[in-house]
Design goal:
Elements: H1 5-21, H2 23-46, H3 54-75, H4 83-100, H5 102-110
């Protein structure tokens, strides 16, 4: 069953966005263009001998590799890079809350009152009886 034009446009949108916004795709396409431009200039100068020129083949190979890398980059799903940082921030926040409320947490985990630090006991000085 064929997709409607609206569905086709919607499906292509992430790829077009990556083509427009991804700097790595731009670098790869620029590299490919540079290599293929070198092929054109070299083949134009060498005319019939260009088919046997190893540098022409090297530039073609590099250009095709750069195009393939750009295509792979566009086709792969975007990475979600912030998940590890988010988990680390949550753990650090929870540890900070536990540390600041450690008496309350200890009481809740112990099932009863949190142990209170005992006050220093002072013994009364013995009264010396003078007669």
């Amino acid at each position: 069953m064929a997709k409607s034009k609206k569905q086709q446009v919607k499906a292509a949108r992430p790829y077009v966005d990556r083509l427009i916004n991804d700097s790595r795709v731009h670098r790869e396409l620029s590299a490919a263009g540079g290599h293929l431009q070198q092929v054109y200039y070299r083949a134009r100068r060498r005319k019939a001998k260009a088919a046997e020129d190893k540098k022409v083949y090297a530039h073609i190979r590099e250009g095709v590799i750069a195009l393939r890398k750009a295509g792979e980059r566009v086709a792969e799903p975007p990475r979600r890079g912030g998940s590890k940082v988010l988990v680390l921030a949550l753990v650090a926040g929870a540890a900070a809350v536990l540390f600041t409320n450690k008496d309350k947490v200890a009481g809740a985990l112990g099932g009863g009152e949190a142990p209170q630090p005992s006050a220093p006991t002072t013994t009364p000085d013995p009264v010396v009886a003078t007669a």
